[in-house]
Amino acid sequence: MHCYVCAETGVDSEAIAICIVCGMAVCKDHLIRADVDMWEGGYPFPPHKLKKKLPRVLCKECYSALVKQEQ
Asked: What is the distance in angstroms between the CA of the first residue and the CA of the last residue of the chain?
């Protein structure tokens, strides 16, 4: 499988991971490994953030949308 971002620019590179959010295949240059907050709770109770974080592989676009907004 090839990196989607590289393929769009005409570069041929092998993907080493899949973004957990969007499912895009990414190479080592286009992935970010981040510890993502875990939430618990459901309707009608308000959710709350758990103490532990979950390690995840994200593409740079999904990382910007999810993790950067929390900081």
From this structure: 33
